[in-house]
Amino acid sequence: MNSDSMPYTGTTTARRNSAIAIYALTLGAFAIGMTEFIIMGLLPEVAESLSVSIPEAGLLITGYALGVALGAPFITVATHKMPRKALLLLLMGIFIVGNALAALAPSYGVLMFARIVAALTHGSFFGVGSVVAAELVPKEKRAGAIALMFTGLTLANILGVPIGTFIGQEFGWRSTFWAITAIGSLALIGVIVLVPRIQASPSRLSREFGVLLRPEVLVALLMTTFGFAGVFTAFTYIKPILVDISGFPVDSISYILVLFGIGITIGNIYGGKLADRSLLPSLIGILVLLAVVLALLGVVAQWKLATLIFVFLLGVAAFGTVPGLQLHMLNTAKEAPTLASTLNIAAFNLGNALGAYLGGIVIDYGIGGGLKAVPLAASLVTIVGILFTLWGYRQSRRERHA
């Protein structure tokens, strides 16, 4: 939340150093993404080891989500005077301590506490990391830099979680948390060595909160919330859709989700490239693609091959929006980039929760046929996100011509 200055010189050496510095952030994002999702694959092992039920072990996922929700605004406000590099180091330090404590946890309560500690850093890391990544490159490549950092999160889903699950099943779940601790430590070293020192120029917290109350900033948050709510209205229930409607065997779902993971990686990278060329028009186009893919997924779900194609396309379209949504927030709230960026990460998580809730309503009340109607409902939610994005585009054009 500082008006930090990181001048970009444009030399070949500067470009190379900037890319390497962003890779340090990518590694941090990989570690954080891995610790967020890894518990899903280790629930039986954790439950047996700590003598709790599977549902109780599942609450470790809820605990992490609670930590993300509480940590993002609290840490961002509490550290608003810190230089961004120092803040990144603090966040990675807390993350490392949380995961080391998880590896050593003698009881369920301690493990829950450790998960919450690690989660406190999640939103702030992606928020401040987005700002730093964007400032390390020329203006016309900022979305690509943000996308590169978020690639760590997508790779955590494709590679980190399966590998971490294997380690946990073969050597014990504590070994997985030690591995995450090691990866986090490497990211910490990378930030120390590679991310340039940032000169801080603190701004008043009241002024930054005032920026967040501007209509265009609120619209940007709604763009993110509803754009991602559409994704998770469907994706939360992708397993029953694939099993009960498409007829895939249960043991094939993990392989299908790898296909989705490849899609989100591709979408993240090329979404960043498109956003750098034409931010809001490309974002509108990707959201329209997302709405179409979701609607057609409901139509073709009874055919296996077509379903596989649309699951892949869902991944591409879903994460194709992420760099653009994050960059639009940075552009809209230039006077409070770290606070705004962090709240935008919270808006992504709010969209996840809202989408899961809306999809559940469709299923519970049998609206439109219940489970079969979930993809169409997701498409309709995405259209709400498109409308907010069109509103944001209109605001942007009006501001440029003012």
From TrEMBL:
Provide any one GO MF term from the record.
Answer: transmembrane transporter activity
**GO cellular component terms?**
plasma membrane
PROSITE patterns, sorted: MFS (PS50850)
Q: Where in the cell is it found?
A: Cell membrane
UniProtKB keywords = Cell membrane, Membrane, Transmembrane, Transmembrane helix, Transport
The organism's place on the tree of life at top rank: Bacteria
What are the residue boundaries of the Major facilitator superfamily (MFS) profile domain, all occurrences included?
Answer: 21-397
- Supply the CDD domains for this chain: MFS_NepI_like
State if Transmembrane helix is listed as a keyword: yes
According to Swiss-Prot or TrEMBL, what is its membrane topology?
Answer: Multi-pass membrane protein
Question: What sections of the protein cross the membrane?
Answer: 20-39, 59-79, 86-106, 112-134, 146-169, 175-196, 217-238, 253-271, 278-299, 305-325, 346-367, 373-393
Looking up InterPro entries in the UniProt record yields: MFS, MFS_dom, MFS_Efflux_Transporters, MFS_trans_sf
* Alphabetical list of PANTHER family matching this protein: INNER MEMBRANE TRANSPORT PROTEIN YDHP, PURINE EFFLUX PUMP PBUE
- Name it: Arabinose efflux permease AraJ, MFS family
Gene from which this protein is expressed: araJ
